[in-house]
Design brief:
4-stranded antiparallel beta sheet, 24 strands, about 300 residues, about 0% helix, Neuraminidase
Length: about 300
């Protein structure tokens, strides 16, 4: 999320299992407003930094151990980040950037290239073909927030909730800049899509979307929307594995694991100010979570 929308925590009541919360291994400071993290060139971690929310002051930093260096710059408010096809791909308001190994950024797609007006590009997920990404067009987030509190979402049954727009959608963008609509707008299950995840196979990709406002995790295929989990309000990052969903909450400062068979929801990490777009580090059996407001990166063991 952009610092513009730092508005109070919404404490949503969920039914959790009695499993223990995972142990945090370490946290490190990385600078102003880290939003998304992934592994990239040389196996290093790369993080999008919104910084002061001034036009052009956004960066991508590289992290080697606990050393943080600026790798690429000139962005506005960069959010979702993935490494695919030998490039870092970042969503930045109305632009999708492609960054090479030298840190040189070029515009892969910008507002004028999309078939519909762009308001708020957010998360990015790599396509399984290694030559494309899926980008959530969240639409402007501000209508979701109740001004009576900081980072507080309107209640789901409130009059304001009933009047919220349904403009959010997901686009597929190839690394040569071709754009198609992957998830259309209009369905109540996905009003403000943020986290996007891809599963399945290269020939039959399965798209999963986390809706920020409702807290739904939705599987979309062939025009059908199927809600697979709910109650995870403020969803930012999303990862899907064969056995579980992992989701972070920007409003609640939590990371959850949802067992796909049993339906149990377990808190893996809580107490952050804003749990942003995390990296599921399968090789190291950990998740790496930026806390945007505190400017820190948290490493949580899944072992």
């Amino acid at each position: 999320m952009s610092r513009t929308f730092l508005v109070a925590v919404c404490f949503t009541t969920l039914c959790f299992s009695s499993l223990a919360v995972a142990g945090e291994t370490k946290s490190i400071p990385v600078g102003d407003s880290p939003e998304s993290v992934c592994r990239g060139f040389g196996g290093l971690l790369y993080v999008t930094m919104i910084n002061k929310d001034e036009p052009g002051d956004g960066t991508i930093v590289a992290i080697d151990g606990e050393k943080v260096t600026v790798f690429a710059k000139g962005f506005n408010a960069p959010k979702g980040l993935v490494f695919v096809g030998g490039f870092l791909i970042a969503a930045d308001e109305t632009t999708v950037w492609k960054v090479d190994a030298a840190g040189v950024a070029s515009k892969l797609a910008e507002g004028k290239d999309f078939p519909k007006p762009i308001e708020f590009l957010n998360d990015v997920a790599a396509g399984l073909d290694g030559q494309s990404v899926y980008v959530s067009e969240m639409s402007t987030p501000s209508p979701m927030f109740d001004p009576s509190g900081e980072r507080k979402l309107y209640d789901l049954d409130s009059p304001q909730a009933k009047e919220l727009p349904r403009k959010g959608r997901v686009y597929r963008v190839t690394l040569d800049g071709k754009i198609t609509e992957a998830v259309p707008p209009g369905n109540e299950a996905i009003r403000f899509p943020n986290g996007v995840a891809v599963a399945g196979s290269k020939d039959h990709e399965q798209l999963y979307v986390g809706d920020f406002f409702t807290g739904n995790i939705v599987h979309y295929t062939e025009g059908q929307y199927k809600i697979l989990a709910t109650g995870l309000r403020g969803i930012d990052g999303l990862t899907v594995t064969p056995n579980a969903f992992y989701a972070s909450s920007w409003t609640q400062g939590k990371v959850w694991k949802v067992d796909r068979k049993a339906g149990e929801t377990v808190v893996l990490l809580e107490g952050l100010k804003t749990a942003a777009d995390f990296y599921f580090d399968d090789a190291q059996q950990q998740i790496i979570v930026p806390d945007m407001v505190s400017g820190t990166l948290h490493f949580v063991s899944l072992k």
